[in-house]
Amino acid sequence: MKILQSIAGMFVWLAGxxxxxxxxxxxxxDRVMKMLLIHDLGEIDAGDTIIYAGETQELKxxxxxxxxRLLAILPQGQGEEYLSLWYEFESGESADAIFAKAIDRVPxxxxxxxxxxxxxREHGITKAQILGVNSRIAKGSEAxxxxxxxxxxxxxxxxxxxx
Length: 163
Hints:
Helix content: over 70%
Number of helices: 9
CATH class: Mainly Alpha
Largest sheet: none
Radius of gyration: 16 Å
CATH architecture: Orthogonal Bundle
CATH topology: Hypothetical protein af1432
Distance between the termini: 31 Å
Structural class: mainly alpha
Order of helices and strands: HHHHHHHHH
Number of domains: 1
């Protein structure tokens, strides 16, 4: 399972690079890439849950502790920089973090849209849940969200997602 998470993480990084020109605001793609990498390290170590279940403080604390442990092996000072980027990503307030969080939501949507809604069906996820969680993509890229929203509407018409 952790290997699958790593592969999905690679897709996120590639998506970030390919879609950087669609960010709503000026971003530093190097910082965005670092945030996405660090974010995935926390999930790989602590375990990932389906986003529609809601994030818990316990899981975030576990991710932070895992990251601190992993980053402690780096030369002095480097781990602090990366941990700071993780906290910035989690807070989602800077332009870089907003875009990174938007990009992080793209692969699960595409996996479901092009995989007959497999995870949505398995977990009984509704259109309202999908729109509620993923509409934040627009904060990072209105163009990207517009395209995904159209694909979600097509999924409803095709019976992949129930309305």
